[in-house]
Amino acid sequence: MAGDTSPGITIPTPSRPSWLRRLLHLSLIGLDLAMLVMAFFAGYIARLVLPFFSIPDKIPVFERYLPTMALHITLVMVLLYFSRLYHLPRAITRLDHLRKIVGTITVASLMAWGLQELLFKGTDLHVDYPRSMFFYVWVFSAVMVGVGRELYQSVRLRLRRRGMERDNLLLVGTGKIAREITGKIKERPELGYNIVGVVVSSKIKTRGNVMGYPIIGTYEDLPLLIDAHEVEQVIIALPDAQRAEMVDLITLCQRGRVDIKIYPDMFSYMAGDLNVDDLGGTPLITVRDIALRGWRLSLKRALDMLGSFFGLIFLSPLLLLTAIIIRLESKGPAFYTQLRMGLDGRPFEMVKFRTMRQDAEAHGPGWTVENDPRVTRLGSLMRRTNWDEIPQLINVLVGDMSLVGPRPERPVYVLKFRERIPRYMERHREKAGMTGWAQVNGLRGDTSIPQRTSYDLWYVENWSLWLDIKIILRTVIQMVMRRDKNAY
Q: Fewer CB atoms < 10 Å away: N or C end of the chain?
C-alpha cells in the first residue's frame, strides 16, 4: 500500500474524538458527580445510624448541608481533573487507579472541611460539619467513586473488545520489539489500539506483515499515512536507531493530534533509571542508583517480618492440612528444600511443599515443563494456585528471603544465565522474593529469562513501599480469583 501514498491520494481531515468518545468522557464526569452526591447523602445518614461515633440527639436537616456538599463535590472533581484522573493512562492497573482516587479524595475532603468554615462562618450558609460526618463522607466518596470508575471501565472494555472506541495506531519497525508490542496489543484489547499497519525503512522490502499486520509504507510516507489512516498514536519500535534517524522520524510524525511513543534504546535498558546530578555545578548522569538502601531496608524488613509472622499464624491450619494430604497421596516428606541463590549471590535452602514424586530428580535437575509427568495430582493444583510457595514465609521470617523481590533460581541455572544475559547478576543486589514484579506481570514458569530479568532490574531500581504492597495485593488477587495478570 506504499504506492497508494502518491500525490494524487485523497487525504481526509485528521481525526477528532468520535461522538462515542465524547459521550464516554461526559458519562464519566456525570458518573463521578452522581456517586459523590450519593456518597455525601450516605455520610449524612451514617452519622444518624452507625454507632462508631456518638449519635447526635439532634442534627440539622440535609438541605442545610447542600452548600457544604457543593463545595466538597467541586473540590473533588477539580482535583480529579488536575490529577489527570479524567485522562487515564491506558495500562493503569486497578490498584494504582484506586490509590490515586483515594489520595485525591482525601486531599479534597480535607480542603472542603477547612474551607467551609472559612467561607461560610458568620453567614446563613454555615452549618456544623462534625468529624464523624466528615469521616463518613470521605469513606463513602472514595468507595463510591471507585465503584463507579470500575463500572465505567467494564463498559469501556466491552466496547473495545467489540472494536469500538479505539485509537488508530501506526507501528514503526519490524524487529523483535515490534513483534512484542503487536503481540501485547493483540492480547490486551482493553488498551484500545487498532493497528492500521507497519512502516519500515526504504531499505527493507515493503511487502509482508508483522504478526498479521501489513507493511503499508516507508519512513518517508509517514506524513501521508498518518493523515490517510487518521492515525492518533505512533509507536517507534527501533531500539537500535541512531539519534539523527530518530529525530527525523519524530519530525515526520508531528502531525496534528498524533501522540508519539518511543521504545527505549539498549543504553537506557543497560543504564536503568537515569538521573541528573551535579558536582560543584558540573552535571553528572547517574546511570545506576539503588533505590533500596538505608532506612528503606529497615522499612522493607519490618514489612517482611510482620507479613510472614501473621501469615504463618493465620494460615497454619491450612498448611498442616496440606502437609497431611501430601503424605497420604505419595511417599516422601511433605516439604521440599532446594538450594537457591539469593542476596549477593549467596546460596540458601528454600522451603516449598513437595509437588513432584520423591524420585523426580533421580537423573539430575531438569526444567519443569507443561503437563510434567513428575508432578503429582495435588502438586498440579498447588502449582496452578502457587500454594506450594507459601512455606517460603519461613524463609522470609528468618531473613533468607523477602515477601517481594526477584524470584531465586538454582545455582546451576544462574551460572548459565549470567553468561548470556546482560546485568543478570544485578538482580541479586536485593533479597529474593516469594513474588515479584515479573511474576505479577505473567512472567513465571517457562517464560523469557531476559524479559524476567528486565522486570527484576526495574523493580530493584524503582522500589517503593507502595510498589511492594501493590505486588502483594496483585499476587493475592491472582491466586484467589485467577484473574487477568494485567487487571490489577
A: N
Average model confidence (pLDDT) across the chain: 81
294-307: string of b/e by CB count within 10 Å (b at 16+)? Answer: eeeeeebeebbeeb
> Fold for domain 2-15+166-263?
Rossmann fold (3.40.50)
Question: What is the C-alpha separation between 168 and 181, in angstroms, rounded?
Answer: 15
3-state SS assignment for residue 389: helix
AA identity, residue 448 = S
Distance CA 66, CA 158 (A): 36
Strand runs labelled E in 244-295 = 259-262, 275-279, 282-286
The domains of the chain are located at 2-15+166-263, 19-161, 295-481
Strand ranges inside 16-125, DSSP E: none
Find the mean pLDDT for residues 204-211: 70
Residue at grid coordinates 457543593: 70
- Separation of alpha carbons 429 and 419, rounded Å: 17
DSSP string, 444-456: -SSS-HHHHHHHH
**pLDDT bracket for residue 242 (50, 70, 90):** confident
C-alpha cell at 22: 465524547
Per-residue pLDDT for 68 more than 90? yes
Using one digit for the tens of pLDDT, what is the confidence trace for 136-185?
999 999 999 999 999 998 888 888 877 777 888 888 888 888 888 888 88
Select from 23, 21, 28, 25 the least CA-distant residue to 148: 28
Judge contact between 438 and 406, C-beta under 8 A. yes
